[in-house]
Structure formats: structure tokens, C-alpha cells
Known about the structure:
Strand order of the largest sheet: 4-3-6-5
Radius of gyration: 31 Å
Number of helices: 12
Strand content: 5-15%
Helix content: 40-55%
Structural class: alpha+beta
Order of helices and strands: HEEHHHHHEHHHEHEEHH
Distance between the termini: 30 Å
Number of strands: 6
Oligomer: single chain
Shape: elongated
CATH class of the domain at 131-246: Alpha Beta
Largest sheet: 4 strands, antiparallel
Amino acid sequence: MRLLLSLLILASSPVLAQGPAQVSSDTVVATINGRKVTAGELEKIVAALPTQNQQFFNINRKDFVRQLALQDGLAKAAEQAKLDKESPFKERIEMARTQILAVAMIDKAYKDALVQEADIQKYYDQNKDRYTQAKLRVVYLSYLASPPAQPDPKAKKILNEAEARAKAEQLVKELRAGADFAKLAKENSDDRTSGEKGGDYGVVKKSDSLPEDVKKVIFALPPKGVSDPVKQPNGFYVFQVDEVAVEPFAKVKDDIFRDLKQAEAAKWMDEARKKVDVKFDNEAYFAQPATPSK
């Protein structure tokens, strides 16, 4: 169905003059190869299809039904020719059925996973560290192991590692002595995006994908605290934390709900794997490279 509809979609150029009328789900809207089809039945068919096919339906419903009727007619002709009993079609049909039912069972397990309001609150209370976030400013000083010669004396000097470290340490001294972070970031940072904003890096969460040594430094700083230079590949960072806060429960509640649902579904999946009964009766067959049977 997917392949045929996709090909037919590409071959059509549908245009609608006006939007479709709203009708009740039990209203008969078309007759496909002698069978009456209601709006509700048609919309269920559409809902089960890929997004591209749903878009085709929304653009030109009549053309969609014409293609559906063609597909239905071809499928019935194939059954009359008993193609569904021949290889490789019968195996494809059975595999498609098996895959669809397997996915349906996984979907059901996710929907049936029970997560109570109390579970969400408990998880939040026990994992507040996960939702801790810091509003961060940064100065980044890049370096090269072997900087090339710079013919233009007015160009910004490319630093080696020792020079970058020394400059970063000097900036730390100035900042801790009361220098304006925004001013120094604009003048010195090699991270143009944050540098142009006075070093404003935005909000960083403990759950973000950052190097652990970087997160450790950031979340050990007190508000307005300035870090020692933090070496990373090809550069040194100097961090200042403007403020540290925990995301409110209301903001993360939905995310926690989804995480707990997924965790319960994953447990169900693990149990399903344990129940799978497989025995390999011919080890020699499975030890050989896979080759088509003759």
C-alpha cells in the first residue's frame, strides 16, 4: 500500500477549490468497488498510513479514494490469481502481519503502563539534582599546538596552549578582582556567538550532554563565582554562574510522565524477551555465512 500510494501521489497534481464539508462519522461518503465506505471508516484508513499519504488525502480526497479503489481492485485480482499463496508474496504478507501486530502490542504496553501523579512527584523529589540548571557566562580562548606564522601584525594573534592558559589565568584574576565579565567576554572570547552577548551562554542543565568535568566545575560554582581555566580540546574555558535554580515541577511534569511510561514499557519489553523460546537445532547452519537456499 505504501509504495503504490507513494508512486501515485507523485504522479498527481491535486488542487482543491474549497475545504471539505464536515460530516458525521457514519455518513457514507464513497462506494469503493461496490462497498459503501463511511467517513469514519475512511478516516481510520488514513490515520493508519504514513504522513505523506495523509497529506495527499488532505489535499485531494477524491484522488486519494480513486487510488484506494485501484489498490483494492488490484489486491482482489491478486487474491483471485492466488498470488497470496505463492512465494515470496505469502511470506511477505505473513511477515507484514507479524510486524504490525508486534508493534501494536508494544504500543499497547506503553499505553497500559500505569503512572500515577504520586509517582511523578516522587521521582521529581528524588531527582531534583537532575533538574538543577545554571545560567552561565563563558569566555573561550582557543589555541593551536603549533600556530602558523602570522604575516599581518594587526591580525589577532593565534595562541599556543601555554599562551592561552596564561591569558585565561589573567582573565580569572581580573574577574575575581571585580572586572566586568560581559566586557571581557566581548573583548577576548573566541566563541563569537556568546562573546557578542557578553559571554551569555544561556541555561545549562545537569542532564545536558556536556563533558562531565565541565559540568562538575559549573555546578560547583556559587552564584557569581568564576571558575579556574578549564582545558578542553583546542581551548580553555572560564565560566561564571549567574544563578543556579531547580526547574519547577510544573515545567518538567510531562517529561517525567513520558520517561516513567517509557521505563515501564521497557521493563515489559525485557520480560517479553525473557519469554522468547528459541532453540538452535543445527549449529553448523548458523556458523556459516548466510546464503540463499536453492
